[in-house]
Fold this sequence. Notes:
The complex is a heterodimer. By secondary structure, chain A is mostly helical. Helix content of chain A is 82%, strand content 0%. Chain A has helices at 5-20, 23-27, 32-36, 38-69, 75-89, 93-108, 114-139, 143-151, 156-186, 198-209, 212-245. The mean pLDDT of chain A is 88. The longest helix of chain B is centred in the first third of the chain and has 34 residues, at 12-45. Chains A and B meet through helix 1, helix 5, helix 6, helix 9 and helix 10 of A and helix 3, helix 4, helix 5, helix 8 and helix 9 of B.
Amino acid sequence: xxxxxxxxxxxxxxxxxxxxxxxxxxxxxxxxxxxxxxxxxxxxxxxxxxxxxxxxxxxxxxxxxxxxxxxxxxxxxxxxxxxxxxxxxxxxxxxxxxxxxxxxxxxxxxxxxxxxxxxxxxxxxxxxxxxxxxxxxxxxxxxxxxxxxxxxxxxxxxxxxxxxxxxxxxxxxxxxxxxxxxxxxxxxxxxxxxxxxxxxxxxxxxxxxxxxxxxxxxxxxxxxxxxxxxxxxxxxxxxxxxxxxx
Amino acid sequence: xxxxxxxxxxxxxxxxxxxxxxxxxxxxxxxxxxxxxxxxxxxxxxxxxxxxxxxxxxxxxxxxxxxxxxxxxxxxxxxxxxxxxxxxxxxxxxxxxxxxxxxxxxxxxxxxxxxxxxxxxxxxxxxxxxxxxxxxxxxxxxxxxxxxxxxxxxxxxxxxxxxxxxxxxxxxxxxxxxxxxxxxxxxxxxxxxxxxxxxxxxxxxxxxxxxxxxxxxxxxx
Lengths: 246, 221
C-alpha cells in the first residue's frame, strides 16, 4: 500500500456516501427539537444513570456474596452458584427481561411493574457478572500470601482485610468499572419494557414529533459522551492504580 | 399452572426457523464485521495520521453507544438519510456489523500487539519481505492470542441479535413474543427460547474458557 492509497480510499467512500445522501432532508434537519425536550431527555438520562448505579451497587453486593459462597466446601451450594452464574451470563438480557416481565408472573402470580422487572433483571445479570470478577480477583491473590497469612496465624479478619482483599480489589477495580459501563449501555435494552429511561423517552418524543433523525442522533451522542467520559476515567484509574503498586 | 408442551410442539417449526434466522444474522454480521474490523485495526495500528484518527473515532463511537440505540438509528434514520427502503433484516445486519467491526478491530489489535516485538525485529533484520512477515510471523501467533477474546465476542454477538426483536426481525426473541401473544402461553415460548439461547451460547463460552487456559499454558503468564 502506498502512502496515498488511504486518503484516496477515504475520499472515494465519502464521495459515494455524499452521492447517495438525501441532501434535502439533511439540510432541513432541525435540532431545536432536542433543545425543546431537554428537560424530558435529561430526566431520562437521570433514570438511565440511576439504573446503572442500581445495577452496579446491587450487583456488587449480590456478586460478592455469591463469590464468597462459591468458595465454600459445601458442594451443592457451589453448584448452585455456578448454575446461576452460567444461566445469567449465557442468555441475552432482553430474553431475561421479557421472561421476568411476561412469563414469571404466570407462575408466581405476582405482577411486577415494568420498572420492577427491569431492575430485577439487570440486577440479577449484574450479580452473575460481578460474581465472576470478584471470584477471579480473590483467586488472583498469589497462594504464597494465603500461606504466609496462615503461617503467621493471622486472625481471619486481619487475613481478609490486610492480606487478601487489598491486592484482590486492586485487580478487580478496572473490570468492575468496565462492567458498569457495559451496564450503562445495557440499560437501553430496558426500553423494550418502557421504563422511561433515555431510550424510551426518545422513542416517545420521536413518535410525537416525527423527527427520528435529530433525536436518535442526539441521544447516540449523549450516550457516547457519557460512556467515553466513563471509560477514559477508567483508563486513568487503571494507570493510577498500576503506578501506586510500584 | 401446567406446562403446555402441545403448543411448543405445534409451533416448533417456527421456533426452529427463528433459530436459523438468529444464526444467519450473526454469521453475516460477523463476516462483514471481520472485514470492516480489519481495516479499522490497520488504521489504528498506524498510531498517528488521518487513518488512525478515523479508525480510532469509529472504534470508540461504535463501542460506546448502546447496541439498541445503534439498531434504532440504522432502522429509523438510515433509510431517510439515503432515501432508500431497507428491510428490517438488512438494518439489523448493518447495525450488528458496525457493532462487531468496532469490537473486532480492538480484538485484532490486541492480538497483533501481543506478538513479541523481537520476532518482528528479527524478521526485519533478516530482510524478510513485509508480506511474509505478516503472513508467517505476525498473523499466526496473533490469531492464537486473539482466539479467547474472539469467541467471547461471538457470544456477545449472539446475545445482541436478540435486540433485533425491537425492529421486528423474525429472530428467536421476536418469534417467541409473537407466538406468546397469539397463544397466550408466554411462559412456554419464552422459556423455550431462553433454553435455546443457552444451548447456542454456552458451548462458545466453554470454548473461550478452554482457549484461554490453553493460551495461558503456552505463553506461561
